[in-house]
Amino acid sequence: MKIRSISATAVNIPFVAPYRFSYGSIASLTKTVIQLRTEDGVVGLGECADGDRVRDVEVMGEALIGLDIRLIQDARRRVVPDMEYSAWANLPGLRRAFGGIEMAMWDARGKTEGVPLWHLLGGKARDHVALTEYFSFREPGPTHPGESTPLEIARFCAEMIEQHDARIFEGKLATVDLATEVEMVREIRAAIGDRELRLDANGGWTLPSARQAILALQPYDVAWYEEPVESYEEMAALRAMTPASFSAHRIDLRKAVALGAPDAIVTNLNELGGIANTVAFIAACERFDVGFRFHSGETGIASAAYLQVSAALEPVRGASQTLFRWYADDVIEGGPFVPKSGAVSVPDGPGLGVVLDSKALERCHQRYCDEGAFPAATKAGRYGGSFRKL
Question: Domain named Mandelate racemase/muconate lactonizing enzyme C-terminal: which ranges (predicted)?
Answer without folding.
Answer: 150-245
